[in-house]
Specification:
The complex is a heterodimer of chains A (577) and B (311). Chain A is α+β, with helices and mostly antiparallel strands and 577 residues long. In chain A, 41% of the residues lie in helices and 24% in strands. In chain A, the strands form six sheets. In chain A, strands 6-11-12-3-13-14 form a six-stranded mixed beta sheet, sandwiched between helices. With 311 residues, chain B is mainly alpha-helical. The chains are: A alpha+beta (577), B mainly alpha (311). Chains A and B meet through β6, α2 and α6 of A and α9 and α10 of B.
Chain lengths: 577, 311
């Protein structure tokens, strides 16, 4: 029933940690969007900003065309399902579901009737008064916007000065950290010793680097906002003017015209209506027999249904779900996932769904937003992100078991492309080769990604098949996950359907640990990533900063102070660990 | 062979449970016996003064020199009756009824106002994050360490200049008791902290404002803690002596029961002649508190948080 637009949304916590960087997304009406990413990537924060539970540091969120930044959660007309259900434990299931209906007041327009029961016609003073009040309010808001402009500019200037100052500091800190790192590194290299893990100086240096980069980015974004202030304000003022003009015209018309009269009343929802709504939601979810129970007498799945029901009764514009299935056990989760898909067809509302589980994201979403460290990595349909991951992070995050990555060489000879890996040659043909030609990709070192399910076993050794040594095989029922080792000790996972290996005894023999297998794959399933980790064929418009797979630049954690016993243990273990 | 002698036999550690294994049932029985003997002894010591006072209050023998319900020094047998209670409400020199009413009014108002203040305070400190929150909490902790008596003289000056001392000391005492009550937020804040924040958020999305969240969601769940707060808020002024005596001075109209009862035994002459009356007053004072506790103690045990979050 509504679209949600997030524009340059940013979340900065009080301790200056930036949880979400410039998040831009337009969620269409009745779309099911899933935010997915590892823990701490800002997906829940973004959802909570839409809900109004978290303040929006910068940017705007609008629901159904209205900017909701300053609205209370209750005024945004949204419904939310929480990870831990958040059912009110002292209320029965019915009361839990009816809670919002009982709280809310509704406006009802009743016709004004004369003695004969006919509607009275006349000058509608009520509406005129209302419109006049609205005009006054709009004028006041416009004034405020005008007054606010220099203040906003001043504030931004101040922020900018502070950021620049901090940036200078960060730069000097970075320089000293880098120098320290280099001297320490040189020292180790001179001694011929391996670098220690963790390498404290390196961590400090990386953290300082990240901080400096963040600050530079911050300054840039402040400058951009400074440039936009007056234009944005003018747009808002124009909108107000137009609205006022329209209202004035309305008043002029109403002052001279007889219209059927209504009076508005602010009422509670009648009990009967509440019963009907709760009952119909309960019927949809199959929880009618539990309506009079307390939440504690319900199982996890039933509680989750109640939580969804509580959101359903309200006819909300937007449905927000914050990891609703992650507290359920695996079997129930699969069942509820299927039910959610069915439910979604019945409810017909806009959905925003947060999860860390890529399977949920793939099965539920119309579109998936993959996030990491507060940056959006890729937005697209499940098929798109699976087939064309923009960077290494998306490639490894989507799909299970995760994609195998190899350091390889892309070689172009004339108009032919091939990938060289461990001395073998894998030619690229067809659509993919054309695409590479179109983009005029040169020969270069690449990271090659192949999904485990796209690899297959070959009987014979050949020039286009890797020779791998099996380490372990996992029997999954319908398929085997074979963990094998490449010549450079890199682990590779291959998914092989059990049926393709023949009889059980043969299969066991064919993939026994220690045997060498010959693994091949087609050119069309290869994912090619450049040195920076971006897909050669699907480069993002704006390259987000953070694309590494390992968490780099983590803030150094101070070691705990050792207790008496720990000191003794340390002494005893000295030289042994 | 020679090499073998150099190698020490590795030490093997066998877990030893220390003592002979008796049957679990027997051990438990012995432990229980010991525990119950100790408990019975403690309860006899604890309950003795109460029985003593109750018995004394029914004794009609004011001449007895030694307060002792069991033995008569004069050799005469005791006479039992309600005379002491009758004296309490008839003697114009000791308006016990007035004191009782005073105390009840003070305790009732304090209980209501203090509960409201404490709960609001705890909810705020538990749920809102504002500048100076930590500082405020620390400051209150430090200030709370000073005994309240330190401010007694100042408070007396202030209140008496406002005309709230002497016979008017009832509103003055209410003010004194509720003035710093917000500082007693610790217990209820601790309880509110255990209520998941997701409940607040769910309620806010469902259309409740902060106040509605507090009294529609949190308070019904925190019933035990509300009752605890009411009880403590009622108890403190009910038995308070120091402030009440300072504020009321010699004006018996402004006394509360504790100060009034002390008047029975404060002088040498009355100490013996009014001793049994004093005991009767003590019994009357303990009745409402006992009743309160009898009805409310079950809420102490009741835990209502179960089922809020998956469990």
């Amino acid at each position: 029933m509504a679209n949600v637009i997030l524009k340059d949304v940013k979340k900065i916590y009080d301790n200056h940690v930036v949880a979400v960087h410039d998040f831009n997304l337009e969620i269409k009406d009745k779309e099911f969007v899933v935010f997915v990413g590892p823990s701490g990537c800002g997906k829940s924060t973004t959802l909570r900003m839409i809900a109004g539970l978290e303040e929006i540091s910068e940017g705007t969120v609008s629901i159904d065309g209205e900017i909701v930044n300053d609205l209370e959660p209750k005024d945004r007309n949204i419904a939310m399902v929480f990870q831990n259900y958040a059912l009110y434990p002292h209320l029965s299931v019915f009361e839990n579901m009816a809670f919002s209906l009982r709280l809310k007041r509704y406006l009802v327009k009743e016709p004004v009737l004369d003695q004969n029961g006919k509607q009275v016609m006349g000058i509608d003073n009520e509406t005129i008064e209302k419109d006049k009040k609205e005009i006054l309010a709009l004028q006041k808001r416009a004034e405020n916007v005008k007054l606010e402009e220099p203040r906003l500019v001043a504030r931004l200037e101040k922020q900018k000065v502070a950021a620049i100052k901090q940036n200078e500091k960060a730069k000097t800190h970075l320089a000293s950290a880098e120098a320290k790192f280099n001297t320490k590194k040189a020292k180790y290299e001179a001694l011929g010793k391996p670098l220690p893990v963790p390498f404290r100086e390196e961590n400090v240096y990386l953290a300082a680097k990240k901080r400096q980069e963040d600050l530079a980015y911050e300054i840039e974004s402040i400058e951009r906002r400074l440039g936009n202030v007056s234009a944005n304000n003018q747009k808002v003022l124009d909108d107000f003017d137009e609205h006022i003009k329209q209202l004035e015209a309305d008043i002029k018309y109403l002052e001279v015209t007889n219209v059927p009269l209504f009076k508005t009343k602010r009422v509670k929802m009648p009990e009967q209506e509440i019963y009907d709504r709760v009952l119909s939601a309960a019927k949809t979810l199959g929880i009618t027999q539990y309506l009079l129970r307390k939440p504690r007498a319900l199982s996890g799945g039933q509680r989750q249904r109640v939580a969804i029901g509580r959101a359903m009764v309200r006819d909300s514009k937007v449905f927000l779900m914050d990891e609703p299935l992650s507290n359920l056990d695996a079997k129930l989760r699969n069942q509820m996932r299927a039910e959610l898909i069915l439910l979604r067809q019945k409810i017909d509302s806009t959905f925003v769904y947060v999860t860390h589980d890529q399977t949920e994201a793939m099965t539920l979403g119309d579109r998936i937003v993959i996030m990491k460290d507060g940056y959006t990595q890729q937005v697209g349909s499940p098929q798109e992100v699976f087939d064309m991951p923009m960077n290494l992070f998306v490639a490894t995050f989507i799909g299970a078991p995760q994609m195998n990555l190899f350091k390889a060489e892309l070689v172009r000879t004339g108009k032919e492309y091939s990938v060289h890996l461990y001395g073998k040659k894998f030619p690229i043909k067809g659509r993919k080769a054309e695409h590479l030609l179109e983009l005029d990709v040169k020969s270069q070192p690449i990271t090659l990604g192949v999904r485990p399910e796209h690899m297959y076993l070959q009987k014979e050794k050949s020039t286009s098949a890797l020779d791998l040594k099996i380490l372990v095989n996992e029997m999954m029922g319908s398929e085997y996950h074979i963990h094998a080792q490449a010549p450079d000790e890199k682990q590779v996972v291959i998914r092989v359907p059990s049926i393709s290996l023949g009889e059980e005894a043969d299969a066991a023999k064919a993939i026994a640990p220690g045997t060498t297998i010959h693994v091949s794959f087609e050119g069309k399933v290869m994912h090619l990533f450049d040195a920076e980790g971006y897909n050669l064929l699907n480069q993002p418009e704006v390259k987000v900063k953070e694309t590494s797979i390992e968490g780099v630049g983590q803030v150094e954690i101070k070691p705990d102070k050792l207790g008496r016993k720990d000191k003794k243990t340390k002494k005893a273990l000295e030289g042994k660990i | 062979m020679a090499e073998q002698t150099n190698v020490a036999t590795p030490v093997v550690y066998i877990p030893d449970n220390g003592r002979k294994k008796g049957s679990q049932k027997k051990n438990k029985r012995i432990a229980n016996t010991v525990i119950y003997i100790v408990l019975v002894l403690i309860s006899i010591i604890w309950i003795f003064p109460f029985i003593f006072i109750v018995l004394e209050s029914f004794r009609v023998d004011p001449a007895c020199q030694v307060p002792n319900p069991f033995f008569s020094m004069s050799g005469k047998p005791f006479v039992w009756g309600f005379d002491n209670y009758a004296v309490l409400f008839t003697d114009p020199k000791y308006p016990f009824g007035k004191w009782y009413l005073n105390t009840f009014i003070i305790a009732l108002f304090t209980a209501i106002l203090q509960t409201i203040i404490v709960l609001c305070m705890s909810y705020t400190l538990s749920r809102s994050r504002f500048k100076g929150r930590k500082l405020l909490m620390n400051a209150m902790l430090v200030i709370g360490m000073f005994p309240g008596f330190l401010t007694m003289l100042v408070l007396y000056k202030v209140l008496s200049s406002m005309g709230l001392s002497g016979s008017n000391s009832v509103p003055g005492l209410i003010l004194v008791y509720i003035a710093s009550s917000g500082m007693g937020y610790h217990v209820s804040k601790g309880f509110f902290d255990t209520v998941p924040k997701a409940l607040d958020e769910a309620a806010r999305i469902d259309g409740a404002n902060r106040a509605q969240v507090l009294y529609k969601i949190i308070l019904p769940m925190a019933k035990p803690i509300v009752i605890y707060t009411v009880l403590t808020a009622f108890m403190a002024p009910w038995g308070d002596f120091v402030f009440a005596s300072i504020l009321a001075k010699a004006d018996t109209d402004g006394y509360n029961v504790a100060v009034g009862l002390y008047k029975f035994i404060s002088s040498k002459t009355t100490r013996t002649s009014k001793y049994t009356t004093f005991c009767a007053g003590g019994v009357l004072v303990s009745i409402p508190v006992s009743i309160l506790f009898m009805f409310m103690q079950k809420y102490y045990v009741e835990g209502v948080t179960g089922g809020a979050v998956k469990g």
